[in-house]
Amino acid sequence: MSLMITDECINCDVCEPECPNGAISPGDEIYVIDPNLCTECVGHFDEPQCQQVCPVDCIPLDPNHQESHEQLMEKYHIITAA
């Protein structure tokens, strides 16, 4: 599964630089996560780094983009090979 940022986001700017895949960017009103780039930090870290630094806990799993650990690892290999 990729992650998503909910409307509780306060635009504190701490999540974007923590993403090793560059999946987080400023949206129209709040930060957004590109599900094509989000691997939940699989391949980089044991836990999603954006969730670790978020002060308002507004980065849950995105139910619209469900992926297994194996699929996330495959996506990691594709992203890092590019």
From TrEMBL:
One Pfam family named in its UniProt record: Fer4_7
Keyword Cytoplasm: no
Gene Ontology molecular functions: 4 iron, 4 sulfur cluster binding; metal ion binding
InterPro entries: 4Fe4S_Fe-S-bd (IPR017896), 4Fe4S_Fe_S_CS (IPR017900), PSI_iron-sulfur_center (IPR050157), YfhL-like (IPR047927)
Highest taxon of the lineage: Bacteria
Domain 4Fe-4S ferredoxin-type intervals: 1-29, 31-64
Keywords, in A-Z order: 4Fe-4S, Electron transport, Iron, Iron-sulfur, Metal-binding, Repeat, Transport
CC annotations in GO: cytoplasm
Keyword Transport: yes
PANTHER family noted in UniProt: PHOTOSYSTEM I IRON-SULFUR CENTER, PHOTOSYSTEM I IRON-SULFUR CENTER-RELATED
NCBIfam families linked: di_4Fe-4S_YfhL
Name of the protein this chain belongs to: 4Fe-4S binding domain-containing protein
Species in which this protein is naturally found: Aidingimonas halophila
